Amino acid sequence: MECLQKFRNVPGLVVNTAKSDIFTAGIQNNELDSILARTKFSRGEMPVRYLGIPLSAKQLSIADFSLLVDRIENCICKWRTKFFSFTGRLELIRSVIQGVECFWPSLPTSSDGGNLPSKEEGGLGIRHIQSWNVALLARVLWNIHRKADTMWVQWINDVYLRGISIWDWQPNKGDSPLLQRLVEIHNRVVIAFGSSKAAIQRMAGWSDIQGLETSKAYEYFS
């Protein structure tokens, strides 16, 4: 616990024992009991969930997204008892329901489907969920390309890419479905723009210092 105390002294953050679990592998039961007694943490069991979604190396099923669906249904049920104008309902869809989906940039969509007309074209201005999903994944692809300073991107580079550019890397059959989907997207833009170099230049035009602007990618993919 000394290291956790040192961590607390620097940023002022305190580990919440009620919300923290310990996951172990390859240690004896007496060692585990000693760790649990010293830390006051509970022993965690797989699969662990992050933002309500199970972390898994396998492709998630529709059932795994039940929490997301339940949250959206709960919002809709509450709205049924209220009197909203058409404009109010539309704003709730845009700001609440489509805001919830952004917590999970890899929603279980596999096709790009048809497009929804924009406001300028007489539509309602609601994002097409499958095109938005592709735009979010394109942002992830760009983060890997620019080697964004995040633990996940570093892990992808160390474990999977191992010095190979994401534009040259090809996944194995058993690799993460997310990585396979990212490769599908980079193949798509390479074919569309003629080469990896041209695709990188185009995506750079969608980006700023913080990374790829999802709205610009959405304009292209929708």
From TrEMBL:
Protein known as: Reverse transcriptase
Organism: Sesamum alatum
High-level lineage: Eukaryota, Viridiplantae, Streptophyta, Embryophyta, Tracheophyta
